Amino acid sequence: xxxxxxxxxxxxxxxxxxxxxxxxxxxxxxxxxxxxxxxxxxxxxxxxxxxxxxxxxxxxxxxxxxxxxxxxxxxxxxxxxxxxxxxxxxxxxxxxxxxxxxxxxxxxxxxxxxxxxxxxxxxxxxxxxxxxxxxxxxxxxxxxxxxxxxxxxxxxxxxxxxxxxxxxxxxxxxxxxxxxxxxxxxxxxxxxxxxxxxxxxxxxxxxxxxxxxxxxxxxxxxxxxx
Length: 226
Hints:
The protein is of the alpha/beta class. The protein has two domains: 2-119, Response regulator (Rossmann fold, 3-Layer(aba) Sandwich); 126-222, Winged helix-like DNA-binding domain superfamily/Winged helix DNA-binding domain (Arc Repressor Mutant, subunit A). It is built from eight helices and twelve strands. The strands form three sheets. It has a five-stranded parallel β-sheet with strand order 2-1-3-4-5, with helices on both faces. Helix 6 (153-163) packs across helix 8 (188-202). The protein starts with a strand and ends with a strand.
């Protein structure tokens, strides 16, 4: 797999290159916004690891530039801890976000998760997790051994968005505007209520969710492999 790593810190670039190459990845490096886009066009990466604070122009601009022509998975790795920066990156088209300093094992796990998502069938009609089966074509949900689970239209819509983006952090903004429309983009309470209802119907232990996870301050993640 070809991975493009973009960071203006030479030590971080060196460390990531050593760790990724040791695990069989083909690694390409860039140290500025313009260089990142130039390298991406030249090599067509299969995954991008991207810092936000870059010379030339920001990582957000890089994400927007990439999203103009490719759906390559983008993992942001940044020292910016403010939730607003994270949401901006995710709304621009990033797939996940890791805060510096990071543990290399966590970073590698995120890379593997994004790799699985990018190589999976784009519209797999049936998704299973735990005892739950979601048929995206038939719009049905069943849970062993009880059978069909009745969802409201809103619950179904939220579940569908999450299930179609496995292992991806889906922002609250995206869910609210997709399910309810732009006028509801600040109504976090709606989202918490319906996600809570979904957990009661689908999770083995709703108070300790395994599959429909909360990313504090940012959104939710469907984790089928947990």
